[in-house]
Amino acid sequence: xxxxxxxxxxxxxxxxxxxxxxxxxxxxxxxxxxxxxxxxxxxxxxxxxxxxxxxxxxxxxxxxxxxxxxxxxxxxxxxxxxxxxxxxxxxxxxxxxxxxxxxxxxxxxxxxxxxxxxxxxxxxxxxxxxxxxxxxxxxxxxxxxxxxxxxxxxxxxxxxxxxxxxxxxxxxxxxxxxxxxxxxxxxxxxxxxxxxxxxxxxxxxxxxxxxxxxxxxxxxxxxxxxxxxxxxxxxxxxxxxxxxxxxxxxxxxxxxxxxxxxxxxxxxxxxxxxxxxxxxxxxxxxxxxxxxxxxxxxxxxxxxxxxxxxxxxxxxxxxxxxxxxxxxxxxxxxxxxxxxxxxxxxxxxxxxxxxxxxxxxxxxxxxxxxxxxxxxxxxxxxxxxxxxxxxxxxxxxxxxxxxxxxxxxxxxxxxxxxxxxxxxxxxxxxxxxxxxxxxxxxxxxxxxxxxxxxxx
Length: 456
Fold this sequence. Notes:
single chain; alpha/beta; Rossmann fold
């Protein structure tokens, strides 16, 4: 009990300054006992079902991610954007992610492999390990019995064929088709498909019809036959590049028999194609439509479509529109689109800014590896990343990335098992990133767990 003087002092102090906080004696305890008194806190994870990616840097927890498990609950769309400069671990992440996804029975993956060394794509080792032969698209080998993909394959609907032909031409010309050229292409396609019955129609048939249009096509529009021929001249010149130009051999014949669309992994090796030429977006368009009509099926299989150097898609308005439709269509049939891009500025400041924004909006998962400070700030603005995440992106070391899964932002270190290392690191990748990734004892233990049950 307080003496009268102390009680009077407390009453006066409370009147002036409010009630004084109760003073408590300090608690003296051990570190072990304090763990139960002051519980540690960490941001919630994404659940415990799916593929183990690695561990969260700040909490040390295992980081598990699977767009098919999260779709509809924490993800509005299963699509994924991977960003970062070369040498920081993007390639290693993609490969281990695919290998771990394939541990599930209901998974299937298509990879557009646009990079390579020693004459093969960088996914060649993984394909060999799984007993799969990559579909190598190469103009030179195609002339000697190599792989061919037919844009007029009967497995593609006639509407799809015509849309694909228009996209090829618009990409090559860098502008949309006018009404007259579009009409000439439409009647040439209809005549070629309708008149060739003993074999698959091919691009040569379209070029022939454009050069020598049928009288009935002119009569149907009450125009002169010479006008129809003139309208289709530019179209014929563009398609002739696929028939008798620098891209000949790959698309001017029936689709090569024996392509196994039921294999767990399908690799399109585009490493022999100049990545900076107009050929790359044309290839992307043809492969994308061909897969849409021949690969994606309502059979409850969860499919992953991974595209290296994806700015070739997002930076072309016509190809971007095609893939935008594919993404919307694929969500109903269990398709996760994974786009790998070095710099976001490659696409948001390009010719297809509007289409790029639409595709980026559909990517509910964004993984960002190290970038320069200016690039990180620009990326943060476009993707809406929190300020703290933007500030640490330039400081990230190889193998560590900022993950934004529909607003759940974590810093994650990707872990690779000893069994995966020989498949994941090509010689070039080793010089870029792998030697700088040091492993702690905890990481080695987690790697052992991954080796035992990567998808447990």
